[in-house]
Amino acid sequence: MKKSNFLRYLWYRLENSALRTLVLTVLSVILTQSVISESIEYYGDIEHIKYASTGIYILAVVLGIVCTIIPMLENMGFKNRRNLDTLYFFPIKREKMAAAHFIGGFIQCIFIYTVTFAISGIYLAINTDFFELYYLVGYYFLSILLGFVIYSFFSFIFIQANTVADGIIMSVLWMFVLWVVMYAVYALTKPLYIQEGNYEIYMLSRRLSQIPEWGMVYAPLNNLTVIFQSLIEVNQSGWNNFTYAGIYRSQFGFFIAWGVIGIACLIGYFVTFARKGANKAGEISDSYLGYRLLIPLYGYSLITMIGSIEIVTILVFMMMIIGYVIYRRSFKLKARDLVITALGVIPLIIGMM
User: Fold this and answer.
1) How far apart are CA 318 and CA 118, in angstroms?
2) Where are the domains of the chain?
3) Which of 2, 211, 237, 291 is most buried as measured by Cβ atoms within 10 A of its Cβ?
């Protein structure tokens, strides 16, 4: 049976990236084995172990890294007009081309992670007998789902840019922007519920202070890993709400929220890919989800958190100006850029109140 153009192009993408995938797999295995072999330790005698760790957090690190860089590598070719001429020469619709790059890239991520995960699991099974390793099965499949969220997130963000450099910068900034904004809101509202000597309000403040970390794109994967470490490792289990694992279990809704974000990014990736004109490749990245939004979000949030006139505050204003210079590719800024920067005095005044 003759393969469709889509399947042939997908196979071409997988063949073309095979060496890269192999290299990343070997490096991932070396890294994980090094960390896990050094992390296996226990306290107490072998019959009465008080505590033992696995080092499986490194698996989350590997998955997070590959789900970040591979979307960029898969879509770099669309940021150069010469490459676009070659890519669009293939007899395949743009929507199917987008699907081939998205699916092909995620297959690479799954392959790298699965090989690394399997070797790590086998190593732990051979060299230890005091871990609840059957929980690794559930961890594997749930971590793949969260890896898909990370992969969709960076696929969507990177495709917004018109150049590779802008795509990388925007991806890095989007890693933390939600955390910065959420922490600014927390810092702004903290005085409203802080009362000295009130234990209940103190505990409320403590729990609310842990919410902003969910704004980081890697937080769900990290927190899932902490939960499963508490189940797998010795004397880490239990439903203790005063441990991080217990807290993350109680915040299950944030896992759902990031799942929704992942689906939205998946849809956004295909919509953007279909609408983005080839003539924009190499031009200024003018997406509303790029510098237009990121500069004021970071600037206003950091100014709010500082909450006073200091040297650091002045540096934030300067960084906003530098951000607009990078965005415009010129020292000659537009009036609205200067106005948006100047409006930073509003969150400054609010933060000082």
Assistant:
1) 48
2) 5-175+213-279
3) 291
- Rounded to 5 degrees, what are φ and ψ at 243? -100, 160
Pairing state between β 41-43 and 51-53? antiparallel
Per-residue confidence band for 109, with pLDDT thresholds at 50, 70 and 90: very high
d(CA 183, CA 192): 15
Q: Which residues, at least 6 apart from 219, have a Cβ–Cβ distance to it below 8 Å?
A: 179, 213, 254, 258
**Per-range mean pLDDT, top range of 6-15, 81-90, 150-159, 209-218:** 150-159
**Rounded CA separation 347/352 (Å):** 8
Query: Which amino acid is present at 106?
Result: F
Tokens of 304: 């709010």
Q: Which residue has the higher pLDDT, 155 or 162?
A: 155
Spatial CA neighbour of 267 closest among 142, 102, 77, 105: 102
CB-based burial label for 187 (10 Å; 0-12, 13-18, 19+) = middle
